[in-house]
Amino acid sequence: MDLASLAIFRTVAREQSITRAAQLLGRVPSNVTTRIQQLEAEIGVPLFQRDRKAMTLTAEGVAYLDYADRILNLAEEAQQLVNPKEPAGTLRVGSMESTVAARLPLPLAEFNAKWPEVTIDLSTAPTRQLVDALLTHRIDCALIALPPGAAWFGADEVATTPLFREELVLLLPPGHPEIERAEEIKPRALAAFAPGCTYRFLAEEWVTDGGTRSARLQFQEVRSYHAMIALTAAGTCFSLLPRSVLDLVPEAGRFTIKPLMTIETCLAERPGFKTPAVLQFRKTLRAFSDIAESPDAPQ
């Protein structure tokens, strides 16, 4: 087992195709097939289920991919740390869906224009999953929102730089009466991302008054703000989202909107992890920040 074999395995796993993986890797398909067979022989278990349409991972393959990802990421991280030059290689950025939609397009464009040798690998997830990915070296940095006192998010294990101040608003169906209290909300289901999402956590806290009030709150889990807004428009659900995302919706004025609170979006990093790409990415984001830089901010 070597890094080249792991890289080939990871590419085949992602593409689910020997042919597509070979094209991406600049190898002939027979070479990729041989390397996968050698790796499976060395490990002693099949990593793929093979059929005419796709190469899908076995249960053992799924587990092995997790370790292969971490090994390859650590190898690249080590190379960048011990031999720092200008930003290059792959920068693995994790982010909340809302930040990708409303905050990242311009900073990413500027970063790419200045550092074209860096490949941005962008993934989205709720905050808690992003912190987990950061601490296990699956990503290099993450844009997250940390609710006050939520130790289960792992905030004490990462360094954070506040960047954007987000106004969170309660979105109610068009024609819904204005409200002051949670019990006045007519839909009983909250459209939200999976558990681990800060905004879902805050919505639940507000509806239940921090758990002190009994509330029959149901959840409709979604994977995008488009679905969240559509379910709210249909009258099926209500939702909580940043106003910066709602501003991107053409018919936003038709909804009933209640401002609730303000929360900061932060760049989270592993303490001591200072590759040139991460340092320049943080610098680029700060140029677009609407929060004054703290004297204690990471340098």
Give the SSE layout.
Blueprint: H1 3-15, H2 18-25, H3 29-43, E1 48-50, E2 55-57, H4 59-82, E3 89-95, H5 97-102, H6 105-114, E4 118-124, H7 127-135, E5 141-145, E6 159-172, E7 189-192, H8 198-207, E8 218-221, H9 225-233, E9 237-242, H10 243-246, E10 256-269, H11 276-287
Parallel strand pairs: 3-4, 3-5, 7-8, 7-9
Antiparallel strand pairs: 1-2, 5-10, 6-9, 6-10
Helix pairs in contact: 1-2, 1-3, 1-4, 2-3, 6-11
Task: Please describe the structure with a list of short key phrases separated by commas or semicolons.
alpha/beta; two-stranded antiparallel sheet; single chain; Transcriptional regulator, LysR family; eight-stranded mixed β-sheet; D-Maltodextrin-Binding Protein, domain 2; 299 residues; Arc Repressor Mutant, subunit A
Textual characterization of the structure:
The protein has 299 residues and is of the alpha/beta class. The protein folds into three domains: 77 residues, Winged helix-like DNA-binding domain superfamily/Winged helix DNA-binding domain (Arc Repressor Mutant, subunit A, Orthogonal Bundle); 107 residues, Periplasmic binding protein-like II (D-Maltodextrin-Binding Protein, domain 2), CATH 3.40.190; 97 residues, Periplasmic binding protein-like II (D-Maltodextrin-Binding Protein, domain 2, 3-Layer(aba) Sandwich). The protein is built from eleven helices and ten strands. The strands form two sheets. It has an eight-stranded mixed beta sheet with strand order 4-3-5-10-6-9-7-8, with helices on both faces. The longest helix is centred in the N-terminal third of the chain and has 24 residues. Keywords: DNA-binding, Transcription, Transcription regulation. Pfam families: HTH_1 (PF00126), LysR_substrate (PF03466). GO terms for molecular function: DNA-binding transcription factor activity; transcription cis-regulatory region binding. Belongs to the LysR transcriptional regulatory family. This is Transcriptional regulator, LysR family.
